[in-house]
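seq as requested:
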Amino acid sequence: MMALLVGCLALGMPRVAIVLVVIFSDYIGNACQTVIWPLLGFFFMPLTVLAYALAINQNEEVSGVYLVIVIVAALLDLGLLGTGEHSRRRLRS
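struct tokens:
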């Protein structure tokens, strides 16, 4: 039940989901050996960090369905960044 709640929260507020996952579990710590990648992911691609942590903790590698999940998360992150830029340009004109 908690995983479903965090998953739904991740789509709306991925940075809040990352903070909750870091506070209440070692899910991201198990997936990443250093602090720099999750920290960069927090600011630039939060859904991708969560998808990567899911893939590593469930499958121990990024392959198969988990590779598709990570790619979709990366595309969503890039789309969210692109939408913000498009909105900013539209407001400026």
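Helices lie at 2-12, 14-24, 27-31, 36-44, 46-59, 65-92.
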